[in-house]
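Long-time lurker. I teach an intro course on protein structure, and each term I like to show students one example going from raw sequence to a predicted 3D structure in token notation. This year I'd like something fresh instead of my usual example. Would anyone be willing to generate the tokens for the chain below so I can use it in lecture? Attribution to the forum is fine with me.
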Amino acid sequence: MKIFRGIMNSILVLAVVATFLPGCKKLLGLSRQENYDYKKETLDPNIHMTAREFLLKRADGTPEAPNDTVFRWMKKGLDYCGLDLSEYEKAGRTFIFLHNDAVRGFNASGVMDKGLFFTFPIVNLDQNGNPIMNPLTGLPQTHPATKWEDYSKETVKNFFLYLIGEGIHNYYDLNAENRSVQSLLPPNSTATKESLLGYWDPSLPGFNGAGGKGFDPQGKFTLRIQNNADIAPIVFNDRTSSRSIGFVATNGVVHVYGAALYPSK
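-- Reply from a regular --
Happy to contribute to a lecture. Here you go:
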């Protein structure tokens, strides 16, 4: 009888495991799931290329995947500001990549309502080239950017320098506490004032009618793990959660974001 009960208990345990872990059903032969979607890439974070190669591959597409251009708008910005792409080949770095949606994101109606171009819009100028101020907010009137060329090359270059961190900071190295990371952006860099980024004041933080530096005074950003019921994202500067993380390049790690990033911690 004890032997029989032991066998029954084992069967029950296996049944429970099979119920909650669909992958185990296949192993136990209890189910034949035709739609079981196993991809090696989800288990192997290594992309076997440099961050630069990863950027270019998914910005311009390839013959095998011509529509994979999720970094196209990031590359447009890099081309415009003239940042040397060899920075994405140097070892021991954490690279923050911008999905197209992080630059210019649209809602179902086709209206831009997110992304850098929407979050840091372009200042409206009068016929004399002076900002048209809103008397209620004390801030300039604005309109969303439509292209990188709406911003100064200096500001765009500084923005991308800010998205390259020194040292490798991956999912397994981070926790729920903010880790401060030194970027390539020189301390005390200031955003020009053709957009609201030039009115962003990290010391407040918020938009300041008198103008602000726009960038973190120390050229640092923070990363931390956000614990939630779903996938735990990496939060950038306590504001923006990652879209996908932990692409291990041959020279560092890449984290991808699909919403606007504020360049101050």
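Some talking points for your students: The first helix runs from residue 2 to 20. The longest strand covers residues 240-249.
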